[in-house]
Design a protein that fits this description.
The protein is α+β, with helices and mostly antiparallel strands and 697 residues long. A hairpin with a 2-residue loop joins β19 and β20. The longest helix has 18 residues. The chain has an eight-stranded antiparallel sheet, with helices on one face. The protein binds guanosine-5'-diphosphate. The site of guanosine-5'-diphosphate has 20 residues, from α1.
């Protein structure tokens, strides 16, 4: 039976979980679901049966690839809260998913390993979350492991994240194999976790041998708060006892303003500290109604506008799609209004109207149908067709875009073909479905060879999708070696007149266009603009000319690679009513593009930004490795536990780097890598690369 589930909750929290790979995100999530009663048994990542990592591919790799959302209830101080956990992929090849998960979260839990400390990926995602103004709670995990230190990790957090004041609000009781509970510095008591899988909370006095340490730590905490809060300062500086409720209320405010990040501790594996972390999520992280407005784009003007949340016009963002042959499941974050079953919404990207046939509450693997959903919630939708990840769905009369429609250009591609020709249609179907799920994955057909090319954001990105095709969808596909996706650009700006003057059958066609081509480093690759000043040209000719210009630039330059970093402005279009039509306009544009290409193009290769943290003694060897691979080292800076190296390096040189780095550092270095544009590559380098990477099936 469908029900109106939103009415039963006093509040909602939309929370992202951020962590470096292996810090314990999946294990913490599993514990959350277990203690909330949504799973009956604690899933264990090591034996590959967790609830969150539900795709087969994720199971076999033991890493979280897709940002799945799981909902559960947690009884806090003020009644039942519905928590939506938005899982973020830990691997850098999935940046777009991380960004989108952060964007739909109102708060985040950042998990650090108490042994490895702050690693490169967590720093990067921390910065991304600042970009979207997402307040954070830090959780130092794995304190049961040999070599763990809460204090050292806390100091590292302090040193690396200077944008906020990190404050310890707990202390560990014991450490490593002796780790047995936490001290709550707000209530000044000891919390232990007993009974079935640590589900019984036992609160008691702080042990005598920890009283001094706990009092010192509480003083540090209150001093930090007093610097930022007048109401705490008034009480604390008078030497009076500061009530727990005052601390909690002020802490919530200071977290919301981005001034403070409380630091908690525990061990997910040993079931220590998880329930207090859930309480902290409810006590301290913002509710959806605390976010009064969001950045949106007016689809008519393209202007960024501040859109109020919680109004009566419905709008929501599709942040993930689980595609299937029959009906896609769309994960939606709602921001405003109420959506009811069978409502019609509009997708401003396609301008298509869509109907909502089912609204689902998604409990990791379990699903409950509901009749309506209000603002600030996360639900699954079934019904809307032709929707991609990142699309906004909104009420028909007030169209609005929550996310830009441009995605980063792919930097790597591989040929893919069915092993048997009878599988061709199925393979194409699966590839289209994967591209719908993931807007940073692209499918093209090679101009001359007719080969299908799958392009994406990195080696692992393609590899994982290739495995999904084989294992999840059971299509026997052969994949070529991943190859760098080169680009071309014009050698310089030029103004070109393109002409189409042909007789087809017994009819004459004619059109002339003037186009200015500018070479610019554009984030979106290439851009087509209409610069025609007079208004006496049919709109359909102009549209056809613009589409041809866009298509012509994508089709490729002298060597057949797509053109990028070009802004093309259509300046004029001349024709006659009897001899000009849409086709003639497109023909004239393609003539202009060919003439521009004839003036000369240069080859570009994708460049990656690399951020490595490593022990000091390994930095020399890593630097040598990178310098032999055309890296430009920007800086090497000191860290409490080693060094950080920032550089830019051609992607072509980075194949196999994730396997090489552990060897160079004895497994002690971490890195994050992301595309940062394209740069000119010499003909010699290019010949060398093309020779060494011919497609091998
Ligand atoms: P994720 O990559 O961040 O999702 O990390 P996982 O939850 O998959 O954990 C990575 C590994 O660390 C697994 O082998 C876990 O069993 C282990 N692990 C997670 N939390 C803890 C912890 O608190 N203590 C110990 N000793 N191991 C943990």
């Amino acid at each position: 039976m469908a029900s109106n589930a939103s009415a039963t909750y006093s509040s909602i929290r939309n929370i992202g979980i951020i962590a470096h790979i292996d810090a314990g995100k999946t294990t913490v999530t599993e514990r959350f679901l277990f203690y909330s009663g949504k799973t009956h048994r604690i899933g264990d990542i090591d034996s590959g049966n967790t609830v969150m990592d539900y795709l087969d591919e994720e199971r076999s790799r033991g890493i979280t690839i897709v940002a799945a959302a799981a909902s559960f209830e947690w009884a806090g101080r003020d009644g039942n809260t519905l928590i939506h956990l938005i899982d973020t992929p830990g691997h850098i090849d999935f940046t777009a998913e991380v960004e989108r998960s952060i964007r739909v979260s109102d708060g985040a839990v950042v998990i650090f390993s108490g042994v490895e400390g702050v690693e490169a990926q967590s720093e990067k995602v921390w910065r991304q979350s600042n970009h979207y103004g997402v307040p954070k709670i830090a959780f130092v995990n794995k304190l049961d492991r040999l070599g763990a230190s809460f204090q050292k990790t806390f100091e590292e957090i302090q040193q690396k994240f200077t944008d906020v004041t990190p404050v310890q609000i707990q202390l560990p009781v014991g450490i490593e194999s002796e780790f047995s509970g936490v001290i709550d510095l707000i209530d000044m008591n000891m919390v232990e976790f007993q009974g079935d899988e640590g589900s019984e909370i036992v609160k008691g006095d702080i042990p005598d041998d920890m009283i001094d340490e706990a009092e010192n730590a509480r003083d540090n905490m209150l001093t930090a708060f007093a610097d930022l809060s007048d109401s705490i300062a008034e009480v604390y500086l008078e030497g009076e006892d500061v009530p727990s409720d005052l601390i909690r209320g002020e802490l919530r405010r200071l977290i919301g303003t981005g001034d403070v990040c409380p630091v908690l501790c525990g061990s997910a594996k040993k079931n220590i500290g998880i329930q207090p972390l859930l309480d902290a999520i409810i006590d301290f992280l913002p509710a959806p109604e605390d976010r009064k407005e969001v950045d949106a784009i007016d689809p008519r003007s393209g202007e960024v506008v501040k859109q109020e949340t919680g109004g009566s016009n419905f709008y929501g963002l599709i942040f993930k799609i689980v595609a299937s042959g029959s009906a896609d499941l769309l994960y939606m974050r709602t921001y405003s209004g109420t959506l009811k079953l069978n409502d019609t919404l509009v997708n401003p990207r396609t301008k298509e109207k869509v109907r909502v046939k089912r609204i689902l509450r998604l409990y990791a693997k379990n699903v409950e149908a509901i009749e309506e959903v209000g603002s600030g919630d996360i639900v699954g939708l079934i019904g809307p067709q032709g929707v991609n990840t990142g699309d906004t769905l909104c009420c028909v009369n007030h169209p609005l875009l929550l996310e830009k429609i441009t995605f980063p250009e792919p930097v790597i591609s591989m040929a893919i073909e069915p092993r048997s020709s009878k599988d061709k249609d199925r393979l194409v179907g699966v590839l289209e479905l994967l591209c719908r799920e993931d807007p940073t994955l692209f499918l093209d057909t090679h101009e001359t060879t007719g080969q299908m090319l799958l392009s994406g954001m990195g080696e692992l990105h393609l590899e994982i999708n290739a495995n999904r095709i084989r294992e999840e969808f059971n299509v026997d596909a052969r994949c070529g070696k991943p190859r760098v996706a080169f680009r071309e650009t014009l050698t310089g700006p030029c103004s070109i007149t393109g002409v189409f003057d042909k007789t087809i059958g017994d009819k004459e066609f004619y059109c002339e266009v003037d186009i200015d081509f500018y070479t610019e480093r554009l984030e979106c690759g290439h851009l087509v603009e209409n610069g025609i000043k007079h208004h006496n040209i049919p709109g359909s000719w102009i549209l056809s000319a613009e589409n041809a210009l866009d298509g012509g630039l994508k089709t490729g330059g002298t060597s057949g690679y797509s053109l990028t970093y070009i802004r093309a402005v259509l300046k004029d279009l001349r024709g006659t009513p009897d001899r000009t039509n849409e086709g003639a306009a497109a023909g004239a544009v393609l003539d202009a593009v060919s003439k521009a290409i004839l003036k000369g193009t240069v080859m570009l290769e994708p460049i990656m930004k690399l951020d490595i943290t490593a022990p000091e003694e390994c930095i020399g060897e890593i630097t040598g490795y990178l310098q032999a691979r055309r890296a430009v080292i920007h800086n090497i800076s000191p860290l409490p536990s080693g060094k950080r190296l920032n550089c830019e390096v051609p992607l072509a040189e980075m194949f196999g780097f994730s396997k090489a780095l552990p060897k160079l550092s004895g497994g002690r270095a971490g890195f994050s890598m992301e595309p940062c544009g394209f740069q000119e590559v010499s003909q010699d380098e290019l010949d060398r690369m093309i020779q060494s990477s011919s497609t091998v099936f």
